[in-house]
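Quick one:
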Amino acid sequence: MAPSKVKIEEPELPPQEVHLLKDSSPPTYSEPFYSNYQTGVPIALDIGTSTFKVGLTNSDRPNNVFPAVAARYRERKSLRNLILVGNDVYRDPLVRSSIKAPFDGPLVTSWDHIELMLDYSLEHLSVTSDNGRLNNPVIMTEPVAVPSSQRKNYYELLFEAYQAPKVVFGIDSLFSYYANSSGNSSGIVIGTGNESTHIIPVLHGKGILSQTKRIDFGGDQAQQFLSKVLALKYPYFPSKLNTHHTTNLFKDYCYVSTDYKEEINHILDMDVLEEKDIVVQAPVEISVGNEKKKSEEELARQAEKRREQGRRLQEQAQQKRLEKLVQKQEEWDYYTKFREESSKLNKTELQARLNADGFDDLNDFNKYMASLEKSLKKAHNQDIGEDDNHTVDPTSAWPLVDIPDDQLNEEEIKEKRKQRLHKANYDARERTKELKRQQEEEKAQYEREQQEWRDKDLEDWCTVKRLHLAGLVSKYRERAKLLESFKDRKSMAAQQRMKNIADLANDESGSTSSATRKRRRNANTSIDNDPNDTFGANDDDWAVYRDITNVNIEEQQEETNNEILSLEEELLKYDPNFHHEDTFAASMTFDWKNSVLHKFIHGPRQNISIAMAAEGIDPEEIANHPEIIRKNHQIHLNVERIRVPEILFQPNIAGLDQAGISEISSDLLLHQFDGKFEAGGDSYSLIQDVFVTGGLALLPNFSTRIVNDFTSFLPVGAPLKVRRAQDPVLDAWKGMKKWSESEECENGYVTKEEYEEYGPEYIKEHGLGNVCLQ
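Output:
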């Protein structure tokens, strides 16, 4: 056998780093209580759909930051109804089923839970009162363009339930911008929230809400989209991913691509995938079997037992075939004698005799005899290959065969039939042995001729065999294309097949073919007493079924494949330049490195189940292999790492009929404002400070992508400056603390008296809040 080609050994890659799938975990510390409460100091409440951040403005940081969830729970031991808020709901696994968020999208739908959270916040701020009222002003965030019904309910809570002295509302991203700039700055604020993203132009410290744009995509939509993408990628993933799983996957491993089009085209290249692919392991318990492996003696004993059972079944099957043969032979002898006698009977007597034996007419009898003869031939052929364990003397083994029936009694006649059957089987086996001997002689002669040819001119022999192999492979592929074309109903092959079916089904087709004319002439030869149906009287008629079912092509494919394997075996043995890599099977072998789907799902390492199957390992053993089970609980993040954040710049990826951040900003700077990028222009002032804040601003490369996209549509030399908030999550609260010390804040408060006089629709406009649209 020829050796394999010399391959360049690829360096063995180290195993990939595996990251554990993170779930929600309760904090190890209890929620702190504020120790520096003072009456009259404003309370800043940054109420987000994801987290609450609360604190007094005499502190540099919020005192409490907790998830915006609550739960009502009945404790079983003490039979008390408990109300849990924030991180406390995750401390007991039994409480998780009753967790509820007060928001539906960006709006509040459960005001009872909001009141519970406000109670919780004020309690941890150590708020006290000697008059039954909240004696601190309140600064609170609200969404951009919040409906008046939402502000009305907040007013009712703060002014009527808590008796707050005065309240002011503002927009969180503008508070964050205020914390990172002077109060009179200009720029574009890109605020990425949990429910939406806003692009807010700011001129001289005041947000221009008439030109503010919203993209309906935020942190919550990002985790939902990632969850759907992973469900499509791993439809049979054994573990269920919850919102905490997908949120952590998004925060930990997703990033903004600086050049999405270029990176998405190459992210599944092996060298890039080696760097970008992230493996995340879901929790899995692998049970180690306690059963000991069976010894070789036990395995051999079981194998011998199976072989013995097989031999016993073969003997039983042979005995049953012999009994059926005897019965059919008896019927054949009886009806053969009846056929000889029927020539002496008239039509009436013949019909009566046929009816007595269960036949409708002579055609029915002839049909049964033909079927019986075919069954006997088939049964004989099945017994041809049976080996004899003893030597048979044909001259003495069947003494009754040559004795006439009139010289035998009834028992001897039955025995004679059995002996005739055995003799027929013996003769058939002898003929088969002779045929095999002749085939072996022909094969030996062929091998001698081939060996002489190889000794005389090996190169010529190899060339001829290779050409023959190429022709067989070409025929195989052509037939494979033909079989594939049958799946396309518009192809010529499929249309011809449908034509054959239609011709077969059309009894009154009026065809003028020779076969049809012959069937019409021989209408009286119908085998089922239908003069109009002569199909099947000619054996060639049945070939149409083989054409319809593609049996001929499939059989030819099987024969060609066997020839290819035989030729390749010869070439591997004698041709020094023919290797395993040159075989037809090798050319059809699955190459996982060139499979986009394999790399997308399994990363830059071969799927271990494919490798084990290629080694011929039992499928059940593969399915129960510990490493396979562990691999089945792994997620490979590659394309998703850049695809999900890209929705901020191309919302159509998620099916949103909206423009992205860059497109919206381009329209604002070039068309909605003056479009002047020299000193003194509004657009010039805006691009001097492009400010990114919010939770999604923590994604890597976010600011770099903003620079790249803005540079592509701004004039050459435009003074673009992009920066991120120092703390994108907490800077909104820090801006509220800073703004609480300004004169604008003091003028923006709505007092309880003004609320009672003007109603809940009354607001005071300021540069960091919403405006009145009435």
